[in-house]
Each structure stands twice: as C-alpha cells, then as structure tokens.
Amino acid sequence: MSIKTPATLDEWNAAGADFLPGLLGMRFTKVEPDEVVATLEVRRALGAWNGYLHAGTVTSLADTCCGYGTVRNLPAGASGFTTVELKSNMIGTARDGHVICSARPIHKGRTTQVWDAEVRRDNDNSVIAYFRNTQMILWPKG
C-alpha cells in the first residue's frame, strides 16, 4: 500500500479529517517540500486538568506537521513512512487562543527523514515547544 500525496491544502486537511488531526482540530495552512505549517485552537478538551494545553496535544501537532512534510517528500517508489524517534522540549504553554506549528526538514534521505518543528502561541509569537522527529521511509516488499 502506498500513500497518495494530496495536491491542495483542502486535500491535506481532508486527509486527516477522520483521524487524530481532525479530532484535535488541526488546520494546515502550508504543506510545501521545505515547510509545513498548521494551527490549532486551544480549548479545554485539549488541555490537562490544570488548565494548560496538554503536552500530548503539542507533540501530536508537531509530529503530524513533520509527518505531512515527510509524505510531501517521499522518494519515488516509497510506500510510506513511520516515526521512529521523536523528542519534545516544552518551554512554555498556552491556556487560550491558537498555537501555530512550523516544521522544516533538516535531512531528506531515501531511508530516513529528520524534521525540526517549533510550536508558538499566536498572540505573542512565543515558543512553547521545540521538536525533533526522525521518520523511517518504508519501501514495498517483494
């Protein structure tokens, strides 16, 4: 099974609508070979019991941006990818408004891709998380 790469932003957003990106409310505004950008509204359902945005929400947003970037850059003949390592450094948080994630590749190879992402609050542009993600490129068996 291979992944069909969406061609438009509407197609990228529709691709995740019935999965975690849609459940969390991620909205992609850019999916290009060298940058992926998505926004997310901070709301109670995405927070921890203390009222702050849950670290799992932030990590899911960043991982998804890196994943969409990997799909956008899959080598010809590859059948897909899977995350093999991720690291998040939470240095802030949000209680309301929107957060914006921007992901950029630092390595686009035939067997792995490595992406860095930043998640920021939109109201003051302060960073709430830095993220690094390594994806393993999958190839058809046979």
Please give a structural write-up.
The chain is α+β, with helices and mostly antiparallel strands and about 140 residues long. The protein has a single domain, classed as Thiol Ester Dehydrase, Chain A (Roll), CATH 3.10.129. The chain is about 20% helix and about 40% strand. The chain contains 3 helices and 6 strands, in the order ααββαββββ. It has a 6-stranded antiparallel beta sheet. A hairpin with a 5-residue loop joins strand 5 and strand 6. The radius of gyration is 15 Å and the shape is globular. The two termini are about 10 Å apart. About 30% of the residues are buried. The model has no long low-confidence stretch (mean pLDDT about 95).
Topology:
Blueprint: H1 9-15, H2 20-24, E1 27-32, E2 35-41, H3 55-72, E3 80-90, E4 98-108, E5 112-121, E6 127-138
Antiparallel strand pairs: 1-2, 2-4, 3-6, 4-5, 5-6
Counting DSSP E segments of at least 2 residues, the number of strands comes to 6
Q: Give the uncertain stretches in residue-range form.
A: none
What Rg is obtained from the alpha carbons, in whole angstroms?
15 Å
* Residue share in β-strands: 35-45%
Mean pLDDT: 96
Helix content: 10-25%
CATH architecture: Roll
Query: Main sheet?
Result: 6 strands, antiparallel
Here the CATH topology equals: Thiol Ester Dehydrase, Chain A
Total domain units: 1
Oligomer: single chain
Count of helix runs? 3
Which descriptor suits the 3D outline? globular
Q: Indicate the CATH class.
A: Alpha Beta
